[in-house]
Write a structure and sequence with these properties.
40% helix, 2 domains, alpha/beta, Rossmann fold, 6-stranded mixed β-sheet, 173 residues
Length: 173
Amino acid sequence: MKSLVIYSSKTGNTQAVANAILEIMPEECGIFTVEEAPEPDSYDLIAMGFWVDRGTADAKAQVYMKKIHNQKVILFATLGAYPDSDHARDCMARAALLMDSSNELLGTFICQGKLDNKLVEGFKTLPKDHPHALTPERIARHQEASKHPNEEDFSKAKGIFQRILSMTQKHAG
């Protein structure tokens, strides 16, 4: 199975998850940033990673995602919010909708990741009534996000991808 791991990463979070996923991918697997990635047409499976920006895949990832047609795809992402939150689920659902309907979405993985320091500094300047203003809860979430992705996140990603790969290989054989 010829496969690709493609990712867009601003702070290194998504790149770290991509590298963990690569460890369990089939032997004929390349890993590339979205800027350096080959055309997706000749691959059997694409693991597409992005960081969440404004509630969906970041702009660079979106450009590559539009190139993917008639492929088996697994999406993975990192974000500052809690991965089990409604917001995280909504972000992944919006990203999945960006994929062409000819693709087969095999599964998804999302985990928390540290925020870009420039973004956090920007939050400090927002008025208290702004939806992204720094509240005690938001500060706590940012502090928790700074600990991710971690080995537990990598292990979860590998487990999810391994299950998906096993199911894909069973159906192919």
